[in-house]
Amino acid sequence: MDYLEIKGGNKLFGEVNISGAKNAALPIIAMSILAKNDVLVSNIPQVEDIKTFIKLLQNLGATSTLDGSNLKINTTSINSTKATYDIVRKMRASILVLGPLVARYGYCEVSLPGGCAIGARPIDLHLAALEKMGATIEIKDGYVIASAKDGLKGANIVFDKITVTGTENIVMAAALANGTTKIFNAAKEPEVVQICQILETSGVKIEGIGTSEITVHGTNKELLNLPKITVIPDRIEAGTYLCAVAIAGGEVTLKNIEPNHLVSVLGKLSDMGLNFEFNDKNIKIISSGALHPVQIITTEFPGFPTDMQAQFMALACVADGVSTIDERLFENRFMHASELIRMGADIKLNGHLATICGDELNGADVMATDLRASSALVLAALRANGTTRVHRIYHLDRGYENLETKLSKLGADIKRLSE
Ligand code: EPZ
């Protein structure tokens, strides 16, 4: 198994290109199930989750070619609507095929995704919404069996909790439904907005894009002609690199990003003492490496993203004071804390609250536990005295394209080695 060996202390300088957003590319690939044409997608991030998702669609019978960051996929040849456990267990975002499959074919079996490291990750809200739209949902042998022989019908859906993939699933299902679907308490993440914008460009009438109330007028199973799609930049990858410069010190320009997707992250970084220069789709961050403490509460967009919580915990470990983090979305998203403590961090956990007293960090052998936790350990290693080895970095490979190459080009002393 691969691991990363990082020697701390190097400042970072230069430019880094931000890749397309994994969490936009995944629902876009699922949306190809609604299309009757070849779907062409550019700026696809080259990460494991994308490869896994494409393999899922191929297992259903879709044909696709992935050339670098350009994907062509055609789903007219789909001959199975069973998403099996062996793929779904690897990536819970596979649940994104549920809405499109039942909307188009009137029947599908999707393995229950199960929990993951950061929490139980239920899909009850997805299923309740599809039932409101006329689907029959049965749970059998670990599979969700969804059927809607006469097609889905428009309905009023109220989400008890704001759910990103839940909103995406229902927007996509509603696009082919017979009648109008109103979604209340919808997610407003940029990735949800892009899905709605693509559907609107394909002729689906949608109101309320980017708001918590989305109205979708279905085509009554008329398949869509999807336009050429360019995946939006990955705001979490961008936030992670901003944090890398913040903790290591230096001056780095991030290219091809969307500053409007990073307002809460940039706000917290400026609270910590960082300075920025903005130039259209680029941001330059300037860091002395000195950091003020920070108070974080994770919430839905446009609030502070839970996917940036671990990275900010790493920053807080070397800030000049006491920081607090309140993780409001997931019940078990502090697993990076015990690994940071192995590096000398002073972190006290109390349920969903973390209190971090900034000090120095020292290199150690640490273990990645989930995608964003692994990036936090890399950030800590960039600052730590001595050498850190981050193990189980298959977690990182799921969502960061060429992380060690990009950091090495900026001046980090980082190598990928095999155990
Ligand atoms: C998406 O997950 C992202 N994944 C996650 O990113 C991200 O952390 C999360 O949204 C929150 O922003 C993708 O977009 C592929 P939710 P999702 O449904 O949709 C509860 C990463 O690192 N809930 O918005 O699965 C749930 O337990 C990943 O890239 C229910 O109770 O998250 C959580 O407490 C990690 N029932 C809250 O809602 C449901 O049916 C938000 O979850 C659905 C969700």
List the helices and strands and how they pair.
Layout: E1 2-7, E2 12-17, H1 22-31, E3 39-42, H2 48-60, E4 63-67, E5 70-74, E6 82-83, H3 85-88, H4 98-105, E7 107-111, H5 124-132, E8 136-140, E9 143-147, E10 156-158, H6 164-175, E11 180-184, H7 190-201, E12 205-207, E13 213-217, E14 229-230, H8 235-248, E15 250-255, H9 263-271, E16 275-279, E17 282-287, E18 295-297, H10 309-316, E19 322-326, H11 335-342, E20 346-350, E21 353-357, E22 365-367, H12 371-383, E23 387-391, H13 394-397, H14 403-409, E24 413-418
Parallel strand pairs: 2-15, 3-14, 6-7, 10-11, 18-19, 22-23
Antiparallel strand pairs: 1-23, 1-24, 3-5, 4-5, 7-9, 8-9, 11-13, 12-13, 15-17, 16-17, 19-21, 20-21
Helix pairs in contact: 1-2, 1-7, 4-6, 5-6, 6-7, 8-10, 8-12, 10-12, 11-12
The structure holds ligand EPZ.
Provide an overview of this structure.
The active site is at residue 116. Its EC number is 2.5.1.7. It catalyses: phosphoenolpyruvate + UDP-N-acetyl-alpha-D-glucosamine = UDP-N-acetyl-3-O-(1-carboxyvinyl)-alpha-D-glucosamine + phosphate. Keywords: Cell cycle, Cell division, Cell shape, Cell wall biogenesis/degradation, Cytoplasm, Peptidoglycan synthesis, Pyruvate, Transferase. The protein is an alpha/beta fold and 419 residues long. The protein folds into 2 domains: 2-18 and 233-418, Enolpyruvate transferase domain (UDP-n-acetylglucosamine1-carboxyvinyl-transferase, Chain, Alpha-beta prism), CATH 3.65.10.10; 22-220, Alpha-beta prism (UDP-n-acetylglucosamine1-carboxyvinyl-transferase, Chain), CATH 3.65.10. The protein contains 14 helices and 24 strands. It has helices at residues 22-31, 48-60, 85-88, 98-105, 124-132, 164-175, 190-201, 235-248, 263-271, 309-316, 335-342, 371-383, 394-397, 403-409, and strands at 2-7, 12-17, 39-42, 63-67, 70-74, 82-83, 107-111, 136-140, 143-147, 156-158, 180-184, 205-207, 213-217, 229-230, 250-255, 275-279, 282-287, 295-297, 322-326, 346-350, 353-357, 365-367, 387-391, 413-418. The chain has a 4-stranded mixed sheet, with helices on one face. Strands 2-15-17-16 form a 4-stranded mixed sheet. Helix 1 (22-31) runs parallel beside helix 7 and helix 5 runs parallel beside helix 6. The model has no long low-confidence stretch (mean pLDDT 96). Ligand EPZ binds at residues 23, 26, 93, 119, 121-126, 161, 163-166, 306-307, 329-330, 371-372, 399. The site of ligand EPZ has 22 residues, from helix 1, helix 5, helix 6 and helix 12.
